[in-house]
Write a structure and sequence with these properties.
Blueprint lengths: L9 E7 L10 H11 L6 E7 L7 E6 L2 E8 L2 E8 L7 H21 L9 E10 L9 H19 L5 E4 L8 E5 L6 H7 L3
Antiparallel strand pairs: 1-5, 1-6, 2-3, 3-4, 4-5, 6-8, 7-8
Helix pairs in contact: 2-3, 2-4
Length: 196
């Protein structure tokens, strides 16, 4: 039987405030520049454009340790980071790193003039997820097992501010928890709260 404590393919999606008409193509040259300048954490390798895939990952910045993805989920754009290499850390620490990297990437995108529009992070809304259906199937027992790790990360991120958790409902989807109701604060404050 799989041990959920071995889970390492975890990620965080940071949402931007809704922007109708956002063109994800602008992220391709931006991500290439991030590789050249080592702008975000990780050994940055390449950029992949999956905008043609319906409900796909959008534009990916591929790194050795994990990937950054800029896409529109539903009607809300966002940037996600997910780890893809084991690192000998507990699940809460892995989610904390993913949260920090996603927030740093989102903050940088907001500062990019070349993105074609003015992005603004919706700090009151996040998504924590797993990309491992074997170790973390989308079930109630997985949610119960991962709840302490999720709450540990959110406790650091939001301190004493109230928030609500909404698990992904369809069992065929990846395990995910939508977090809403957190405080609307500057992204730099959130990054500092999860900086090791």
């Amino acid at each position: 039987m799989p041990n959920i404590q071995e889970l390492y393919r975890v990620g965080v999606r940071v949402y931007f405030k809704d922007l109708p008409g956002l063109d994800l193509a602008a992220a391709v040259p931006v991500f290439h520049r991030w590789i050249q300048n080592s702008s975000v954490p990780g050994l940055l390798i390449d950029v992949a454009d999956y905008r043609h895939v319906e409900h796909g990952p959008g534009v990916l910045l591929i790194a050795h340790e994990g990937n950054y993805g800029f896409s529109v989920s539903g009607a809300q754009p966002g940037l996600e980071y997910y780890q893809k290499r084991p690192g000998g850390l507990d699940i809460a620490s892995r989610w904390q790193i993913a949260c920090r990297n996603a927030l740093q990437g989102a903050r940088l995108l907001c500062e990019e003039a070349d993105i074609g529009t003015r992005l603004e992070v919706d700090s009151s809304h996040l998504r924590l997820f797993s990309r491992d259906r074997l170790l973390a199937p989308n079930t109630r027992s997985t949610g119960d097992a991962l709840r302490p790790a999720v709450e540990g990360v959110l406790g650091k991120l939001y301190a004493d501010s109230p928030y609500s958790l909404e698990p992904q409902q369809r069992h065929t989807d990846l395990f995910a928890v939508e977090v809403s109701g957190g405080p609307s604060v500057d992204t730099a404050v959130l990054i500092a709260s999860v900086a090791q």
